[in-house]
Amino acid sequence: VGLNQINVVVPTAVRAGANVNVVLSIGGQTSNTVTLATKAAAGPSAPPVNVSSLTINATAMVAGASYLGTVALSAAPSSDTTVTLSSSNPSVVSVPASVNVAADSTTATFTIVCGASLTVSTAVTVAASADGVTQTAALTVTPPAPALPPDPYYY
Questions:
Q1: Which of 53, 58, 103, 114 is the most exposed place for a label (fewest CB within 10 A)?
Q2: Could you give the CA distance from residue 140 to residue 67 in angstroms, rounded to a whole number?
Q3: Does 2 score more than 70 pLDDT?
């Protein structure tokens, strides 16, 4: 009859990374010393980091102008996190393909550029995605105001 398995309980006073020597004794027979290396128990996993909000500094925009958008994450990541950006109509509103949120930060800003050749008001949705979560912001881009004719009385 052989011994197939033993269970060893390491005292909690043993610090992680320390070695523990184990000697098994059965029926007066002693085994060779076996050294076990310990490691830290897995702690709670970090919460997922995803996009919690997308804000734009204006929802009514004028063609030919630039605006700022801000993405906020649900938690500060331990390493840089890339947030993917998109526009439902890139010819009217363009955004970078992505924005980087630095480690230990929760927000990042990016530039939104409205096309200059717009002739009618157009609704556009901007989206920001990370870790399977997408947030959107709806905005409307209006054509620029027409130039006024010269004042005939000015001369």
A1: 103
A2: 12
A3: no
